[in-house]
Amino acid sequence: MSNYFKTYLSMKKLYILAIAIAVTTFSCKKNKEDEPAPSGSEQAKVVENYANIVYATYDDALITAKNLRAKAADFVASPSEAGLEEVRAAYIASRTPYIQSEAFRFYSGPIDQDLGGGLTIESSINSWPLEEVYIDYVVGDANAGIINDVAHFPTIDKNVILENNQKEGAGENSVSSGYHAVEFLLWGQDLSETGPGDRKYTDYLVNSDDATNLNQARRGQYLLACIDLIIDNLQTLKEAWKSGNASNYRAGFIADPKGSIGNFLKGVIGYADDELSVERMQVALDTEGDAERQEQEQSCFSDQTYNDIILGQKGIKNVYVGEYVRIDGTIVSGMSVSDLVKAADPKLDSTVRAKIYDTDIKVAAIHAPFDNEILTANTAGTIRVQNAINALHVEAAQYKNAANKIGYLY
């Protein structure tokens, strides 16, 4: 059994178990019919807890990105098959907190900070689809990409990568930075119908007769610089949400509890109703042709899209229930949107929670790899994906009902 399939089965079993435990836990809680309407102090507690969750999530993303950097540095210094597998595992681990953080988008928060030229911190970290030929060789073109263009890019460093990310005139798919650039450098093109890409560690061997393809040293430089950029951006996000700083984003966010709740609810609704459901899945299903559909898969090189969808839904749930489980097992929790809704309408809160857990089940039902699920001949797979999409739309609608109940109109 491949490491990829073992990871998939392990993730699926753990996720389904977590759903079962959560459903049992929440079904045992009694509604407090006589609970008073939410007060300003309660709103402040919700905002404080949300900010704590955001900070912890970005902190975990930073910790895991630094671990990825360390593993990658060891690998580049002494390439081996085992070393490449370690870096790949570190990459997958780094995605676990980051994908959960995507529920913090779409309300002009720090992640959507404008970097100029129409780019944001998010587009520097997580842009996709990615045109492989913009970065490195592809089948049929051994000299493609920044890595192999020594004449135009004699030096590879963070500035070169950042300056050329979705460069004006190059096209929005001309992505040079972020997680998916790292993913491509670790797995290579996904040319398999049953598994992820299969880049060889020998692509990184320097001054060796066993080396494959060109510019092995530059490839290693690109990998490390790309991870360094991710770390820089995550550090910026962490600092923006750090407590105790009177002049950072968090300070202003905490100072306006009512407005901030409205903002982050708008963000999570947009993520569920458009980004995760439509951009990540519906677009693929609506695309004509299997090859074209597979190009719409987010984590196509590593075949980790299934996990991306699960973790995206987990982030949506985190916001409503006001809880985040850190990578070390520590739980960050406090007063939540759910608590505010329950105080206003206990039955509605129960309905929202039920739809959240129904969505958990629907996304867990998708089979990995995702690119097989969306093949036109895979009727059962496309139904599973469509069921998950529909569940996300229903979940978003219930989020809107909850928001309306506590004074926000969407």
Automatic annotation (TrEMBL):
Boundaries of each Imelysin-like domain copy?
A: 55-397
Q: Which InterPro entries match?
A: Imelysin-like, Imelysin_sf
What lineage is on file? Answer: Bacteria, Pseudomonadati, Bacteroidota, Cytophagia, Cytophagales
Question: PROSITE patterns in the record, alphabetically?
Answer: PROKAR_LIPOPROTEIN
Q: Which domain of life is it from?
A: Bacteria
Any one GO CC term of this protein is: cell envelope
Where does it primarily localize? other
Among the Pfam families in the record, one is: Peptidase_M75
The entry's protein name is Imelysin, Metallo peptidase, MEROPS family M75
Q: Which residues form the signal peptide?
A: none
Q: Where located?
A: Cell envelope
Q: Give the species.
A: Cytophaga hutchinsonii (strain ATCC 33406 / DSM 1761 / CIP 103989 / NBRC 15051 / NCIMB 9469 / D465)
Sorted UniProt keywords: Signal
